[in-house]
Amino acid sequence: MSISVCIVTFNGESFIERQLKSILSQTHLPDEIILLDDFSDDNTVKIAKKMLQNSGLNFIILKNIYRLGINRSFEKCFSKATSEIIVISDQDDFWFKDRLLNIKNNFKKNPSIELISLNAFIEVSGIVSKKTVNDHYPYTSSTLINLAKNRFTGCQIAIKRNFLETLYPFPKDFICYYDHWISQFSLIRKTTMYIDAVQGYYCRHSKNVTNLVTKSSLVKIFILRSILLSLMIKKYIFLMYKSKF
Q: Which H or E run contains 85?
């Protein structure tokens, strides 16, 4: 069972070296690393290229010629992966050494599973807290609860590529992020596994693109969730229709 690690970066020169070191130090190395940079104006790509060239691993580095944003960038990055399993990485996280081995073993033991969600300690501005991702985003198997408030963070999930490819294109960023979209369909299909054992650090700092706690009006949330639900229904009908032919 092959593994691709997919990373999207943006002005991550302060973080990318540590994260790549944690990936390259895995007890089970990935079969390939796909890194897509969303038009950084710092040395992120230069640092990553130097590290990956010396790693001995298969890798691809892509650079957007203008900013695509989170969803389009991840979709583009995922589309270049060739392995059975795609493991998502942010530029600023940190992985414990057995993370990829645990992911692979759990997919092997549970062939019907299409998405694995992991837990991690939350690191705030370099300080690791006792709180975990699950403390902020408690795992749920309910599609409705997850629709109201996304409980999945992209950098803590691994997905089967053949399942992921059925979900393109992702909605626009302002509707929902790609991890919300993917997790909804995994929950609908009842093919989700949650691993509560901590597998690394989920890092928060002043340069994060997304916030740990989002603050939006109830009216805005209702409108966006309504749009998301409508898109999900359309996609679900399309997939059901396609499966018959």
A: strand 85-90
Looking from the CA of 57 toward its CB, the CA atoms found within 13 Å total 26
3-state DSSP call for residue 124?
Answer: strand
Residue with tokens 């695509």: 68
- Going from N- to C-terminal start, the domains of the chain cover 3-214
pLDDT tens string for the chain (245 positions)? 999 999 999 999 999 999 999 999 999 999 999 999 999 999 999 999 999 999 999 999 999 999 999 999 999 999 999 999 999 999 999 999 999 999 999 999 999 999 999 999 999 988 998 899 999 989 999 999 999 999 999 999 999 999 999 999 999 999 999 999 999 999 999 999 999 999 999 988 766 666 556 667 889 999 999 999 999 999 999 998 877 76
Q: Topology of 3-214 in CATH?
A: Spore Coat Polysaccharide Biosynthesis Protein SpsA; Chain A (3.90.550)
CB 186 within 8 A of CB 110: no
Distances (CA, A) of 54 to 18, 24, 26, 75: 15, 10, 16, 27
Instruction: With beta carbons less than 8 A apart as the criterion, state whether 97 and 71 touch.
Output: no
- Beta partners for 118? 195
Task: Look up the pTM and report it.
Answer: 0.93
Q: Give residues with Cβ within 8 angstroms of 160, minimum separation 6.
A: 84, 85, 86, 107, 113, 114, 115
